[in-house]
Design goal:
The protein is an all-alpha fold. It has a domain of 110 residues. Helix 9 runs antiparallel to helix 10. The chain is elongated and about 70 Å long.
């Protein structure tokens, strides 16, 4: 390959061309993934590495499993380059959709990128962490939970929502990891954004599945959400109240079971009533 030839001075141009080809014909570039990764690692402090990482990000959109084999190289380049290359983070995010076990090794780099620039990298990184939490892979550290908590009241609604959603994903399999920070999520139950209210209620539900007492401080807010205009908010509030075994919700849950226009809400309300001890 020309990129490996010692006499070639057009490596950046060649790498950029390969990225463009990957966007149109990924099958033409995929067989060279290992070679491209080796060049990127060898020249991680040079501009060509940036173009190659961009190529991997593009290729991962169509061939995440193929690029997954190069996760170690991509992680090594990100560790060496300054600024946490957004294309590299995007490549890892796309790999996580098919090969989450490969991305576990990149958790420290992802966490550092989130801490360094949450506004630029937050949504990509938080969604990656969420996929890891939802997968069956063992994540060696959940230190990123603290980073996510720092963003639950961020000014940017989408970033705020992704942070809370990430915490909810963690709570799905490890409620205890999120329980200590539930007080930081209380305000999100009253957020102007419906999706944020929904993911916050879901996070409380998942933590309450192990410790019902976490619902007590937010009982009134969750009861109010039973009258929310959005069905997914009402459904998640039902789940949280069901796990929290809130007697005060019984009458309203019965009404939702019989009258709510959404079948999901009716089913969730009926389930919540069945959980009462």
């Amino acid at each position: 390959m020309l990129l490996e030839h010692p006499g070639i001075d057009l490596r950046v141009e060649i790498a950029a061309c390969l990225a463009d080809i990957a966007a149109e014909a990924p099958d033409d570039v995929a067989p060279s993934a290992a070679t491209l990764a080796a060049v990127a690692v060898d020249r991680s402090d040079q501009p060509v590495a940036g173009e190659l990482i961009r190529c991997f990000a593009i290729l991962a959109a169509d061939r995440p499993a193929v690029v997954g084999d190069q996760t170690t190289a991509i992680t090594a380049v990100l560790e060496h380059r300054q600024g946490y290359d957004r294309h590299g983070l995007r490549a890892l995010a796309r790999i996580s959709t098919r090969r989450p076990e490969e991305v576990v090794q990149a958790v420290p780099v992802l966490a550092e990128a989130l801490a360094a620039n949450p506004t630029e990298h937050g949504r990509t990184v938080l969604r990656t962490f969420g996929r890891l939490a939802r997968s069956d892979v063992a994540v060696p550290t959940l230190e990123f939970v603290e980073r996510a908590v720092e963003l639950v009241d961020h000014d940017e609604a989408a970033l705020r929502r992704d942070a809370i959603s990430c915490l909810g994903d963690v709570a799905r399999d490890d409620p205890g990891a999120v329980e200590p920070v539930c007080t930081e999520l209380e305000g999100a139950l009253s957020d102007d954004d419906a999706d944020t209210r929904a993911v916050a209620a879901l996070a409380f539900a998942r933590v309450a599945s192990e410790n019902p007492a976490v619902v007590d401080p937010v009982r009134t807010k969750l009861l109010d959400l039973l009258d929310d205009d959005h069905a997914h908010v009402r459904a998640n509030a039902c789940a949280a109240l069901g796990y929290g075994d809130v007697d005060a919700a019984a009458a309203r849950l019965t009404d939702l079971t019989n009258r709510d226009p959404s079948p999901i809400v009716r089913d969730r309300a009926d389930w919540a009533l069945e959980q009462r001890s």
